[in-house]
């Protein structure tokens, strides 16, 4: 393995471990901090893959905006932050198996779509941001990931509003 491949594997391992810790943490503040580490790791993966613009966007949008919004929502809620009881249900393996089956089905579906293995256009030169914007909105290139990202941002916004909302009504 080359040095960039080793760096990629190490960063990917950090991202996976921190993502598991997000889900497994009992303290919501610790989960938010693990989320920030995971998002920084994804930005580092973009940097290793020489996608500097995407790394900066990852840090600005996800770490800078969404993670900060989640932390503020946690701080604004007046719920007690002490350790609670067991936070997993006794039937947790069933949803885990369903999630793995859903992942396998989606991976198969996306792999069978035409054009998913195509090489994206090169984004080099002075007009790289313009080319990226055109590629994001082009049906042949990145329109599906762009729409998924917009739905993710909307879900994060709605989730933060629900968490920060007053539940005493």
Structure report:
This protein has six helices and no strands. By secondary structure, it is mostly helical. Helix 1 (3-24) runs antiparallel to helix 2 and helix 3 (52-76) runs parallel beside helix 6 (143-164). The N and C termini lie far apart (58 Å).
Overview in brief:
The chain is mostly helical.
- List low-pLDDT spans: none
Global morphology: globular
Biggest β-sheet strands, sense, barrel = none
Strand content: under 5%
Order of helices and strands: HHHHHH
Alpha carbon gyration radius: 19 Å
Helix content: over 70%
Q: Helix/strand/pairing class, anyone?
A: mainly alpha
How far apart are the first and last residues' alpha carbons, in Å?
A: 58 Å
Number of helices: 6
List keywords for this structure.
71% helix; 6 helices; 169 residues; mainly alpha
Provide the fold topology.
Blueprint: H1 3-24, H2 28-48, H3 52-76, H4 93-112, H5 128-137, H6 143-164
Helix pairs in contact: 1-2, 2-3, 3-6
